[in-house]
Amino acid sequence: PWDVEDVSASVRSFIDSVNASRIDADHYYLTSEAHVAGSARDYDTAVWTKKRFEEASLSPTIDEYNVLLSDLNDHSLTAWWHNGSYRARLEEVALPEDPTSNISSVPTLHGYAASGNVTGEVVYVNYGHQSDFEYLIGEGVELKGKIALARYGEIHRGIKVQNAEKHEMAGVLIYTDPADDGYVQGVPVPDGPYRSKWSVQRGSVHFLQMGPGDPTTPSFASTPENEGRRLGLDELETLPSIPSQPISWGDAEPILRTLAGMKAPKHWQGGLPFEYYIGPGPVKVNLFVNSSYIMTPIWNVMGMIEGSEEPDRWVVLGNHRDAWTFGGVDPSSASAPMMEIIRGIGDLIHSGWRPRRTIVFGNWDGEEWSLTGAVEYVEDHYDEIRNKVVAYLNVDEAVVGQFSFRLLSTPSLSDFLINVAKHIPIPEHIQERPLPSFTAGSSASSEDGAAPVLCRGCNTVYEYWLHGQSVIASRSGSPPPPSPWSSNVGSGSDYTPFFQFAGVPSCDLRFTGDYSGYGVYHSNYDSYSFVSKQLDPGFGLHKALAQYWGAAAMILADTEVLPFNYVAYGVEMKRGLAKFAAEVEEKGLTSGVLKAAYTQLSSAVSAFSDAASALNSRLASLRSSSTSVSPSRISEVNDALMSAERAFLSSEGLPGREWYRHFIFAPAMDLGYGAATFPAVMDGVLNYNSTQIEEGVRLTVERIEAATLILSSTATVA
Q1: Does 445 or 168 have the greater pLDDT score?
Q2: Model confidence at 441, in pLDDT bands (50, 70, 90)?
Q3: For residues 536-558, b (16+ Cβ closer than 10 Å) or e, as one string?
Q4: By the 8 A CB rule, do 506 and 371 touch?
Q5: How many angstroms separate the Cα of 639 from the Cα of each of 39, 612, 649?
Q6: pLDDT single digits (tens) 47-82
Q7: CB-based contacts of 283: which residues, under 8 Å, 6+ apart?
């Protein structure tokens, strides 16, 4: 329905200006020291970033918010059983291959972990899903007062802790099993991308699915004028009350090895060289966590290029700056490309170029804790964002692998972004790079017997992306996709407040690997050494990401009629309908009332899809004749295209988690990251609650009908 047939001379000039060596140099600076949110080094990087913005004439500011974080004072973990004991290391070893890994960094911790000194028998709870706990209860496993041992993966770590807390467990240990990210998958760090024996994944255990941001200021900004509205520590509902501790598989192994009781099911078995048992016990542990809540400033860096024709319509690019340690991948693989984007756009500004619409750059702080800097900004500037922001383009981790590309996107924005990829070159040395031997499933030779390469002949990001997805499809026996596909946005990065709270079409861009994770995530080994030596030598993929991200922003800022496609929204809603029907059937919730509710939701989706199709036809005609159309008419159409996304929101929020306001997509209650379609409905399905499902359908239909009315009215104007 919409394509980028060609790009302007200014966009081409920008693409040609992007320089991998400068990205390399900026990345080296940003990763030279750990920079946790609120630290002195974090502030230093904010000042450095502001200077880069000033050089590009972005009129930057440093915006400070005073927020609740936590600090680890001390911790320990001791295990014992009938004929032995073990004191956990709880720290990562230095690697000779990685110069920064011997620098004292952030301790292995969970952000917002509760303090506690607890002792109890251990129960292995698999990934800590709600369904995992239901299985244990069904098997008669005692949970109250026990210590949960969960493995990382599949759901947000905060949900694992919350589920254990709901079942009155005393504490939680979370480790990364080598079956998920370790030697079972491939070669560990430093020779491969998988997690090594003593590597630990830090991270926040805030209950993200309930609402992100400063826990003391839910739905309002952490500004001086709101100081009197802050919640007290005893009022916080999104932080855990039981202690938790991340550990390596090296520290988990002696505990898992000595568990007895019932044998774990086959799909609960991990990668360590013994059978897993559930317990409880006989191994017991003492978990000691001494942490303190602290109020501390964090610093967003903001910059802006004012539009020449529509200064009150903004395209926003965002990336967070804070890291759990050195931030080689997360987030500096995106922060360094952002610096190159502003450098390239700054050169265009100095040559006299101005975008049609305003371009805003946001360098967020506190993302690792609860998306905090971006959330506070959106809450602080809510009305302005609702009225002005056309789209939000996020990059959190620019390069986590060298196999393909991944797009998370609002459906209305996905076609545009996929088509922009056709104009972004992939460096030739990237095309010819051998597929790494450590990449799962990549050991087969090519047809001529030679070692396979990443993507010979893939000249653009689009071709590179499609190639990777075609390889994945072929492994499952599926036909190759006709074009690259995207996934819906849930939560987990800074697009969350723009999309879920303010109704702004949003996305997240990333080069991805042929594996489920990358073994340095939130560890001491997430460093310049890992990125420059192994992940992307020469920073060619970082360069391509900067070109893609910057070009997409420039095209969005200059395109006369906004390139939104709501037909794609209808397609995703129909998929959501099918999942709703399947899960209701699976859970035995079918009834006459629910069948009527399904019919009502299905009818609303069909009417929306029809309106979107009619609008697309009118928009195609408008775009082809835009030079003869009055600016006021185009402005009216663009405002309506923005409003249609906002119509999916309700100021009342989702029942039970009111911060989230979008009734078509929100993070699934039982996942934390991944998107649920029709979340108010699916929350009821998760709870086996027919009344909640029926009410969720009613509220969701209201939002769909509101959006449908806007699309129908716009079709008559376009």
Answers
A1: 168
A2: very low
A3: beebbbbbbbbbbbbbbbbbbbb
A4: no
A5: 41, 16, 16
A6: 999 999 999 999 999 999 999 999 999 999 999 999
A7: 79, 80, 81, 121, 122, 255, 258, 259
CA dist 408 → 398, 463, 485, 496, 594 (Å): 13, 18, 9, 11, 31
**Burial class for 352, CB neighbours closer than 10 Å (0-12, 13-18, 19+):** exposed
- Across 403-466, the runs of DSSP E, i.e. the strands, are 404-409
Q: Which residue has the tokens 């029809």?
A: 610
Measured CA angle at 18 (ends 16, 19), to 5 deg:
120
Cα separation, 24 vs 6, whole angstroms: 29
Residue 105 has pLDDT above 90, yes or no: no
Question: pLDDT band for position 517 (50/70/90)?
Answer: low
Beta bridge partners of 72: 291
Task: Look up residue 99 and give its amino acid.
Answer: P
**Rounded distance, CA 339 to CA 422, Å?**
23
pTM: 0.95
Cα–Cα nearest to 511, from 556, 553, 548: 548
Q: Could you count the other beta carbons within 10 Å of the beta carbon of residue 188?
A: 20
CA distances from 341 to 20, 313, 346, 357, 406 (A): 11, 20, 8, 17, 20
The C-alpha angle with vertex 411 and arms to 405 and 416, in degrees rounded to 5, equals 65
Q: Which helix (H) or strand (E) holds 120?
A: strand 116-124
Question: What b/e readout covers 48-73, taking b as 16+ CB neighbours within 10 angstroms?
Answer: ebbebbeebebebebbbbbbbbbebe
3-class SS at 201? coil
Taking the mean position of all CA atoms in its chain, how far away is CA 86?
A: 36
Check: CB of residue 323 under 8 Å from CB of residue 372: no
Judging by DSSP bridges, how do beta strands 357-364 and 284-305 pair with one another? antiparallel
The confidence score (pLDDT) of residue 413 equals 96
Going from the C-alpha of 368 to that of each of 110, 125, 155, 294, 364, the distances in angstroms are: 11, 25, 16, 16, 10
Beta strands in 423-512 (DSSP E): 506-512
Q: Report yes or no: 199 and 205 within 8 Å, Cβ to Cβ.
A: no
Mean pLDDT of the chain: 93
Residue 103: the pLDDT is 84
Strand locations in 167-322 (E): 171-175, 203-204, 244-247, 284-305, 310-320
Q: Cis omega before residue 273 (within 30°)?
A: no
Task: Give CA separation, 699 vs 574, 641, 666, 703, in Å.
Answer: 17, 22, 14, 7
CA distance 406 to 40: 34
Q: How far apart are CA 589 and CA 397, in angstroms?
A: 40
- pLDDT computed for residue 536 by the predictor: 93
d(CA 116, CA 650): 39
- CA–CA separation, 661 and 508 (whole Å): 20
- DSSP per-residue codes, 363-421: EES-HHHHSHHHHHHHHHTHHHHHHHEEEEEE-S-SBS-SSEEEEEE-HHHHHHHHHHG
Q: Do 362 and 553 touch, CB atoms closer than 8 A?
A: no
Assign 192 to helix, strand or coil: coil
Catalytic positions, written as ranges: 367
Q: Where are the alpha helices (DSSP H) in 182-295?
A: 249-257
Report the DSSP beta bridge partners of residue 111: 204
Residue 25 CB neighbour total at 10 angstroms: 15
Please answer whether residues 182 and 270 qualify as being in contact, where contact means their C-beta atoms are separated by less than 8 angstroms: no
